[in-house]
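Two proteins follow. First one:
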Amino acid sequence: MDTQNPSVHAHAQTRTTGKNHPRRNTHAGGVIHDNSRHTTRFTVIGNHLAQHPELSALAIGLGVHIQSLPTGARADIKTLATRFPEGPTRIAAALRELETHGYLRRTRERTENGRIVTRTVSCNQPGRHGDPTDDAPEPPAKPPARRAAEQRKKPPRRALPAVPKPAYAAPALLQTAIDVLAGLRREDPRLLLSATDAEHLAPGVAAWLERDLTPTAVRHALTTDLPPEPLRRPAALLAHRLAAQLPPLPPYRTPEPPPPARHPLRNCDGCDTAFRSPEPGTHCRNCQARPPALTAV
């Protein structure tokens, strides 16, 4: 019973499929991988680089080589041209390809001793900065809509320089000053002022007018020798001129006394009738023409 039947074929030993032993794969054509797991001295390369549809073979090879270099290794054109058979021109073109697609960043920096060097940063995943082995940082939270609107606001406008003040701001004087400022745009279109700017500058113009200057003289002083370039803020320029070129006060003159009244009204000593006479104690014409009364003896 222990005797084997010689007519039975020996059982074939069990073998794994061709997936684990690619040499036994019976598919015709195409790439067959005979892979072994790396445990030391290896670099993880993304398929987005190794199978990039737009990069040249030289650019892909240089990208893989640069990612395998240790930190601090030289990766300039001269060093790579010495390492590979391609010349500097083709090496430089391949590096520009990698830089265009985000696999390489090159910046020029000045060292402490004054030398200018090129810093090369290799990116194993374009669009992510920092350590290539780290996970990409979370994108910063978007600011609320209200905060974003506040950030888009323009910075506050700087206040205009101070202008002189008149001794007595009469309404008629301030109105004349406003008219002078409103007419400046006829002399130079760049001097178009807003109502707020004119209100700020009016006291300064009034201070000039009360120094015995005519509106024409003030207008001439504000519009002469203006800079040829465009005026970013004409009101600030006018405020500076009103303060810096303020004329001095006119010399003090003693006011003249009013002229004496000619022939004031006086009362006649004879009939008490009012009449004009240069001297008191006289008679009117009627009393002077009347004959004197006879005195009784």
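Second one, unrelated to the first:
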Amino acid sequence: MGSCALVAASAAPAAAHGGGGGGGGSRYVALGDSYTSGPLIPRQVDANCARSDHNYPSIVAGRLRTATFKDVSCGGATTEHMWKAQGTNGPQLDAVGRNSDIVTVQIGGNDIGFGSIIGTCAQLSAQDPTGNPCQRHYGASGVDQLTVAIARTGPKVARVLQAVHDRAPHARILVVGYPDLLPDDGSGCAPSVPFATQDFPYLRDTGKRLNLMLRLVARWNHAEYVDTYGPTIGHDMCKPPAERWIEPLQPTSPAAPAHPNAKGEAAMAGAVWQRLTHGRGGR
């Protein structure tokens, strides 16, 4: 937790800006990675970026009845892809202009290596199914490397927010956190989610550290934070198919492994909508 506070403190506060409201006629731009784009969720509208027209930005845009809507989220995106093309998807920041009213940003998971972390922890679980081989692996140097990766990602996210402010001085900028992937009580569900028993709480806490960093960086860069973790507790990848909003490593609903399904995207849309329509009172 302390490292995240240092990350936030290192991000220079941006100049205060006004912002568009949450009503109809807004010009909305969505930036982000695969948790935003919605891979494999019908209907896929961009094969290069695995983007769905039922992802949370599309749902929010429909509720807002936007004047314009640009969703440039892309599976596999890192903060670098805000400035760099990703296949046929141009630099995501190119979609943000001076007349943009609302910009949502959900980024950072790939910067810390979401995919490789899941693969590594699943592979290591066979060595010590009831222990914490993944935590020991990332802490072998005496310092938890995932905590370090989160701290190093903070300034990258801050730079993205500063760039959005520069391009859209009057926009409301919402930093969207990541949903609850694993049981919030620290319990496990191997073998359906193949992590060692004591690595479930470790990975849960890593997700919470990532979200804390995003919350603090948003605060220090005059953006609003959208909590999607709280609203998705109880619907993680360990739950039965009818109850889960995050698919396990072998999905049973159309979605990428360890990603939100259509219900998960709808839940994140609800959290964004709640933030837009209930003002800017808290960060």
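SUMMARY FIELD: The chain has one domain: 27-277. Residues 1-20 have pLDDT under 50 and may be disordered.
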